[in-house]
């Protein structure tokens, strides 16, 4: 390694601005002029400033540059912003089952710009390989920039510089100089100054002719602490990809139904769903609602089960109750790291059809009640003594098929058609009839049995969002560390005051990383109290 | 710190960051590690049969399996049913099983349909669409061709005809 020798005899590493031993500026032109090296890293050589041409060092040097870091941040900012121009793939409002549909959606909806957007991969930006690479590069840059600077800074601050070169003192923004009167007790003057500064909360480092007072050194670590926080945050985000760390599922559960939560061993049962509304007398002001209502609460009373037989999907579950209680908007049901949120509902959906079987030949007397559960119709039910009703055909969402036969559009009971057969064992009768869209079609023109349509069972279907995010504690912890770092750097300052006596001349210099006004007041206070014969010069630039 | 130490520290730090990069890239490429793909093992499941006991896919090891996801509301499913049945009849003695997975319907809706097309291959009922989600089924019909060892050899989305089925089945017969 190339080294530079200072006139004091100390050899400094390449890139050193201020001699590590005496503090004299090492670049000659600088020491002669008023421009003084930046005090940010105490004039130390950054660790990356070596001449080594090894691959590792080159990569290291690349990431140790703050300019590169800012470049990466700007690219990430621009990319993130562009990613919000059109919706991300997961937020496309229409179903897009295949990749071709996705491409078509962007082209048809947003034209040429949409096509470009899709082709550049902006539709899946935040999980795309290049965006992820940028984030990892930012993390790399954070780690290396910090290491590259914090180590030399730590070394420099650990060894407080006492006997600084005159040009170091002169180079500081606050500098004072004056002749001491004959017969002044130099030791007493220094001791007095030390005492005054100690009372102000300074830590004192002293030799016979020099002293340095320092306070708030820890604020210099603020930026590095906040970088540690940011790195923890990024690690937390990355940890979400570890299997079992992150889950985001959505299940629809009918009242009374128990369904499996995908990718977990859990089942959820919806006991009851309710929407509550504000009544008018609860409202502080009379509102013109025109018959409208305002919801007060959305709630699913649910039971969470764990399936002890989860190894074989689809097999009969062996359910053990884990939790029983309400799921309310903003008040999820919590089990370990699993959160169940109330996040959707479909109210008043058809659950079952109700009919009365009547005897038309006997003054329309009611024979019995028929119930057809639209999600699980019973094949046969006994309606009255000796009278059975069979469900022959069931189409949950009736449509006339291409072949002229009834068919179903979906597997949801939106428009049910039910064909039933009434079997009267005593009268040896068999009559068939069909329910469709609120009316009954009978097979015979003069049937014995008729059907009266009653109010159907209406049920609510609750949408539950199931989430798990085990990285959240780490992300919060990272954010907390970040805030500590920011507070350290923002609310405290690293102040240093040097006093040196040489050949009857007293020299003072002071440095801080912020709040020069506060430092100036402390220096003025010291000069006044000790009646130091100095004139203070404050340069406009440090 | 001396120079060689410094190099080792740098290699260690950069190595760690490289591991992070590889992991991040891997998880961005493989968004759904559990997805059933060609070459992966078909996840085992057990479902109740239409008019029969529970049936597990794992019990069919040693046979070529055509796993067909369908619903009565799906026109192309209807149209390919006879083709599936014909190929089942042709190859069942050579070790082929066609397994139809009905998506979320009740036996009353499924039974007349099965009768109408004279389907004799086993039909299982996925009442809660659990297996449909496990296999990440999008549009139907979707058909998986599974080797006697239980490996997914081919996934076909859309309607199949007899020639296509025969061709694909020939690759999974024991």
Describe this structure in words.
The complex is a heterodimer of chains A (542) and B (174). Helices cover 29% and strands 33% of the residues of chain A. Chain A is an alpha+beta fold. In chain A, the strands form six sheets. Chain A has a six-stranded antiparallel β-sheet. In chain A, strands 6, 11, 12, 13, 21 and 22 form a six-stranded antiparallel β-sheet that branches. Chain A is elongated, with a radius of gyration of 40 Å. The longest helix of chain B has 27 residues, at 3-29. Chain B is elongated, with a radius of gyration of 22 Å. Chains A and B meet through α2, α5 and β15 of A and α1, α3 and α4 of B.
Task: Lay out the secondary structure.
The complex is a heterodimer of chains A (542) and B (174).
Chain A: E1 3-5, E2 11-13, H1 28-32, H2 55-63, H3 66-82, H4 99-119, H5 129-158, H6 166-171, E3 174-179, H7 186-199, E4 203-206, E5 210-215, H8 222-239, E6 246-254, E7 258-260, E8 266-277, E9 295-307, E10 319-328, E11 333-335, E12 338-359, E13 365-373, E14 380-384, E15 387-395, E16 398-400, E17 406-408, E18 417-424, E19 429-436, E20 439-442, E21 449-453, E22 457-469, H9 472-491, E23 495-502, E24 505-512, H10 516-530, E25 535-538
Antiparallel strand pairs in A: 1-2, 3-24, 3-25, 4-5, 5-23, 6-22, 7-8, 8-9, 9-10, 11-12, 12-13, 12-21, 12-22, 14-15, 15-18, 16-17, 18-19, 19-20, 23-24
Chain B: H1 3-29, E1 46-48, E2 54-56, E3 64-70, H2 75-91, E4 96-103, H3 107-116, E5 123-126, H4 130-134, E6 142-146, E7 152-157, H5 162-169
Parallel strand pairs in B: 3-4, 4-5
Antiparallel strand pairs in B: 1-2, 3-6, 6-7
